[in-house]
Amino acid sequence: MSGPPHEARLELKVAEKARLALFKALKPEVESKAPGCDVAMTFNGEKLIITFNARSLSRLRAVLNSYLRWIKSICEAIDVT
Hints:
A hairpin with a 2-residue loop joins strand 2 and strand 3 (47-54). The chain is built from two helices and three strands, in the order βαββα. The protein has one domain (6-80): 2-Layer Sandwich (TATA-Binding Protein). It has helices at 16-32, 57-80, and strands at residues 6-13, 37-44, 47-54. By secondary structure, it is of the alpha+beta class. The protein has a three-stranded antiparallel β-sheet, with helices on one face. Helix 1 (16-32) packs antiparallel against helix 2 (57-80).
């Protein structure tokens, strides 16, 4: 690993219906293991918590941007239905 690891954590307080939809939609991405980045997803009460660890800041930024965009799209789809 080059340089210190970088970490970010998202805590999303969402309704139960949205939490389950987010979890199911993001699960394949979490399990696919992007190169140089580890992602973990858990529940804690009303919160869906997603933790990111990356070898470089640029990888962390890229994976965060992807997940934030997916989360936004999923939430918009839930609002439409």
